[in-house]
Amino acid sequence: AADDPIRLGQEPSLAFAPTTVSSIDLAGTLPRLWVYFLGVFGPNGPLPLHLTDYARERLRAHRDPTFSRFADVFHHRFLSLFYRAWADTQPTVSFDRPEEDRFAAYVGALFGLGMGSLRGRDSLADQVKLHFAGRLAAQSKSAENLEAMVAAYYDFPARVEQFVGQWMDLPADSLWHLGSGAPLGAGATLGSRVWDCQSKFRIVLGPLTYEQYQGLLPGTAGLGRLVALVRNFIGDELDWDVNLILRADATPPFRLGESGRLGWTTWLAGKPRRESRDEALFTPLHHAA
């Protein structure tokens, strides 16, 4: 209490409180704030009314605040605890004191961000994770939730294509050999790889402007944040890739001497394009910054 930047007290009054705050005094070493609620005085206080009348009469008629100031020793403690309990459940108040933000710890604990050692661990800001706490904490990791988060964070169209097929290489000890006891239809596989369509999805972003397209290319911070967002949602259990769609009218003409990334931002075309470009397809985990 000695370190508090303000002193709190109650105004002794017999009237029902018309407002919450009575007055504030900025004179002196510390500001003083007087309120009407949560004190020992008044019609709602625990003390008999004649003590409120006595404190009020001494303060106004005799300019003697001794009794009121003595009661304010307890009022300051009551009101300080009341404010702290209220602030712990208010994100706007806690945002002013990030080192003491207990509300963020409460919400973060729902999806694995409750401890301080778990914060700031990737390129996605913790405030973004807290904003999507309801979706990150959901037990069902649906494509709809991922679509909604990506679209809301980047503010452009996004969709998730499920069951994207891919070839998966088999480890050497899982290959079938002549003479082994693998039954047909159960353990016998011809070849060194199998086609799988249940462990990969694709995030399609766009149509995008040229600036948005550049901000999500391999090696950019924007792509790193996308990787962090997806990892916070589903972890590393599934494979996924990204398909960037560039608007047809956003394709820049290629000119010698200008900066460009071969294979990403350079196109040889003599006529204006009428369809969006969707050639940018890559696995972000191989290129994230």
Largest sheet: 4 strands, mixed
Helix content: 25-40%
Query: What is the tally of beta strands?
Result: 9
Q: pLDDT below 50 for ≥5 consecutive residues: which ranges?
A: none
Question: β content, as a range?
Answer: 15-25%
Count the helices. How many? 9
Protein name: Type VI secretion system baseplate subunit TssG
InterPro entries: T6SS_TssG-like
Question: Which short descriptors sum up this protein?
Answer:
single chain; 289 residues; alpha/beta; 2 domains; four-stranded mixed sheet; three-stranded mixed sheet; 9 helices; 30% helix; elongated; T6SS_TssG-like; Type VI secretion system baseplate subunit TssG
Short description:
The chain is of the alpha/beta class and 289 residues long. It is built from 9 helices and 9 strands.
Task: Provide the fold topology.
Elements: E1 7-10, E2 21-25, E3 32-35, H1 49-61, H2 66-87, H3 91-94, H4 102-108, H5 126-131, H6 133-136, H7 143-154, E4 158-161, E5 166-169, E6 193-196, E7 200-208, H8 210-214, H9 221-234, E8 239-246, E9 277-282
Parallel strand pairs: 1-3, 7-8
Antiparallel strand pairs: 2-3, 4-7, 5-6, 8-9
